C-alpha cells in the first residue's frame, strides 16, 4: 500500500476523488487536509466527512488548513459547486467525529514520521506552500507530489488562460513549483477535461450501487446545470479523481518533462507557463500530462468505487 495525504477543497469532484482514494486498496490514506478553495475550509471539511461517512471510513482524520490564499483575497467557486460545495444537497453534518486543527503541521509531522509519504493535491496549493515556508526539510522526505491544476494547451476555466486551483492562489502555486525541488506531476485541464461523467454512466452507477450512485447523482446535479449553461454539455467534467487514478496507475496518462511556473499578476494571473523550449535554462520541475485514456479511467473508477468488475 502507498501512503498518501489528500490535500483538497471538497468540492463536487474532490468528493468523487475522495471516494476513489478511500476505496482503492493500493492506497493508505493517512489523512485528508483541507484548504480554502471551492468553499471555505470549514465547509470543505464538513464535506470531506460526509464522503467518509458514505464510504464507512470515518477512521481517516480530516484536518483544517489555510483559510485564505497566501496573498490574494479568497474567491470561492460556489458558482460551480453550490453554496455548500456539494451541489446544494445539504446532507446532514457528521457529528460522530469532527475535523482537527492544524493541517500544515499534520503534513510536516507525517512527512517526518512515516517513510515514503506522497501528497495528492486537489485544490489551491496554499497548505503545501505554507508547509514549505515553515519546514522545507520535511518536504525533502516527500515521496511523490501530484497536483490537479493548471493548463498547458487547454484554455482556462477561470479566465482565458487560468485554471481555478492555480488562479485562486497563484502565489502559493508558484512557490510550490519553484521551491518544492521535486518533480510535480501536473494533472491539468488538458487531461481532466476529457473526463466527463455522462448520464448513462451515472445511471449505471446507480444500478451497481444504489446508495453511492444516488449520492453521486445528487451532488452532480448542480454541476450538470453549470456545464449545460456554460458549454452546452450534457454531463460534467470531473477533474480531481483523475489525479488519484493516475497516482495508482501511471499508464492512464502520459506527458512530458519541463520547467513550469505560474504567473501571479495582471490579466494572466494564474496562468501556467510551461517552458517547453528551455528558454530559461531551468531544471525541469514538472511532468505535464497531455494524454489520457479516459475510458480506462472510467473503468477504474467504476471498478474500485462501484465494484463494476464484480458485477
Ligand atoms: C479544479 O478547480 C476546482 O473547482 C475543482 O475541484 C478542481 O480541483 C478544476 O479547475
Ligand atoms: Ca478541487
From TrEMBL:
Source species of the chain: Iocasia fonsfrigidae
Hydrolase listed as a keyword: yes
PANTHER family in the cross-refs: INOSINE-URIDINE PREFERRING NUCLEOSIDE HYDROLASE, URIDINE NUCLEOSIDASE
Molecular function as annotated in GO: purine nucleosidase activity
Positions of the Inosine/uridine-preferring nucleoside hydrolase domain: 4-298
Entry keywords, A to Z: Glycosidase, Hydrolase
Record-level GO BP terms: purine nucleoside catabolic process
One GO location term (cellular component): cytosol
Keyword check for Chaperone: no
Gene3D superfamilies recorded: Ribonucleoside hydrolase-like
Identification of the protein by name: Nucleoside hydrolase
Amino acid at each position: 500500500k502507498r501512503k498518501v495525504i489528500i490535500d483538497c477543497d471538497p468540492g463536487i469532484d474532490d468528493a468523487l476523488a475522495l471516494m476513489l482514494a478511500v476505496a482503492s486498496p493500493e492506497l493508505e490514506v493517512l489523512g485528508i487536509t483541507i484548504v480554502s478553495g471551492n468553499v471555505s475550509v470549514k465547509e470543505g471539511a464538513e464535506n470531506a466527512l460526509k464522503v467518509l461517512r458514505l464510504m464507512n471510513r470515518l477512521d481517516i482524520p480530516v484536518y483544517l488548513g489555510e483559510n485564505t490564499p497566501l496573498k490574494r483575497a479568497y474567491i470561492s467557486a460556489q458558482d460551480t459547486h453550490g453554496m455548500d460545495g456539494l451541489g446544494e444537497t445539504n446532507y446532514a453534518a457528521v457529528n460522530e467525529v469532527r475535523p482537527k486543527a492544524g493541517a500544515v503541521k499534520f503534513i510536516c509531522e507525517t512527512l517526518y514520521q512515516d517513510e515514503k509519504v506522497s501528497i495528492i493535491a486537489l485544490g489551491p496549493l496554499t497548505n503545501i506552500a505554507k508547509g514549505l515556508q515553515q519546514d522545507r526539510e520535511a518536504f525533502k522526505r516527500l515521496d511523490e507530489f501530484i497536483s490537479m491544476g493548471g493548463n498547458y494547451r487547454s484554455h482556462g476555466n477561470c479566465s482565458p488562460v487560468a485554471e481555478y486551483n492555480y488562479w485562486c492562489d497563484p502565489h502559493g502555486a508558484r512557490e510550490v513549483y519553484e521551491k518544492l525541488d521535486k518533480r510535480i506531476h501536473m494533472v491539468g485541464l488538458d487531461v481532466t477535461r476529457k473526463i466527463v461523467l455522462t448520464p448513462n454512466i451515472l445511471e449505471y452507477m446507480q444500478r451497481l450501487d444504489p446508495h453511492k450512485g444516488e449520492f453521486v447523482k445528487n451532488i452532480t446535479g448542480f454541476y450538470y446545470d453549470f456545464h449545460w449553461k456554460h458549454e452546452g454539455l450534457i454531463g460534467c467534467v470531473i477533474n480531481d479523481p483523475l489525479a488519484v487514478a493516475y497516482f495508482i496507475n501511471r499508464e492512464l496518462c502520459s506527458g512530458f518533462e519541463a520547467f513550469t511556473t505560474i504567473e501571479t499578476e495582471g490579466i494572466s494571473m494564474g496562468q501556467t507557463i510551461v517552458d517547453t523550449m528551455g528558454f530559461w535554462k531551468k531544471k525541469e520541475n514538472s511532468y505535464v500530462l497531455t494524454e489520457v485514456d479516459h475510458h480506462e479511467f472510467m473503468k477504474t473508477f467504476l471498478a474500485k468505487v462501484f465494484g463494476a468488475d464484480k458485477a
